[in-house]
Amino acid sequence: MENFNYISFYNISKVDGNIDSISMELGRMFEYTPPDIEKRLQNYSDIAKDFLESLPTFLCTEIQRDDDGYYSIIKYGKINNIIKKNSEVEANFQTEIDFGKVKFDDPKSAKDLFYLDRFQISRTHWAVREGDAQEILKNLVKLKPDLSKFVIPGNNFLQDKKDIQPPPREKNILGLADSVESFLKLLYQSRTGEEKEFFFRGHSDSSYELTPSLLRKWSNGNWQFMPNEDRLCKELLISHYDEFQSDQYCFDRLVRMQHYGLPTRLLDLSGNPLVALFFACSGNEEKNGEVIIFNIIADTIKYYDSDTVSCLSNISNLNFNQKNSINLNLDTDDFNKSDSIRKLLHHIRSEKGFFEDRIIPKDLSSIICVKAKRNNTRIKSQSGAFLLFGHEVELPDHGQYNIGVSRITITNKENIIRQLNSININSTTVYPSIDQTAMHLREQIKLC
Fold it and tell me: Which of 175, 223, 242, 401 is 20 to 30 A distant from 74 in Cα terms?
């Protein structure tokens, strides 16, 4: 599948006129990019930059509207000299064809032209999309026939770079385990650092991404759930309001929603590595499983009543447009005076009336480990904690400054399940509910 860069801005001045450089907020990089490609590019290595610079690039405004209808200002060209800074990515842009103001009958026409979804056309971001850039150019010429002379079939100004591929994933794989004994041996070899706490997570398929359910994407890079986060939460609350009456904080509600299967910005962790191993062996028998090991700096771990936890949790109460307008590059005073953050503060004060308007922008885009109240049997049995994902943030394969990530590949699942059952790690102890116990007993009888 061919790829192209799709770079979109709300601010018309960033596209219109003589543009020779661009900059994008770090949190908006690689949105709407297929997950595997996104993970390969997140380290901004020289190979990653070479790949981005090898792609044809469409520089566009978000879909705008005036008296004549819908339009976007569109340029076609190439990028080079990519530089990652603290909060932005900068690059030079060289225009090959300036399509100017391109009119559309409706937003769907613009969406279909670039293979976009309905949210992407109104989102400032940089995506690597799958699709045929030459086909897009042909369709643009139909809308701007006077520029047809610039679109020459077979003329690829990036011909010398067409075979460049993105770099491989940077997963830290400690080894392969085919028994409980080999798993524990690898695990003990990995445990270093007295000032760290260790948590675990099991995936029955090693290709699964380390991403909360809310932030998962379809294979083409489109969001599955994220644009509708506030709606999902509110619909569940109004349908089962009594279930949430005892929850003091928004984080408590998210934990309960996660427990019932709603997509949230939480990623379940366990303090028990054998529980993670059980999950890694449960299902997908034909696939290798994976246990992910998180070594987290102890001083950065938060509790359910933390102010930072309240800030990140209450992002779930903002609608997509409000999240879209958050500008993390503002200074603290201006940031807290902005409309979307004032709305966020309103939600935080509903649970903490004393909370001051001093949210630090970079804190809102963090990932933190949180220890939750053990107020349901599942959390108790799995020694539960969570990674809470803030605004526009991804966890790289190799982790981040306070969260180290390593992995053990799991094979021979059937043997490991038998071994775990012999030491009382099974669906009854991992899921201590009457229906799961009944299911476990039924399967045990089958094996007799």
Answer: 223
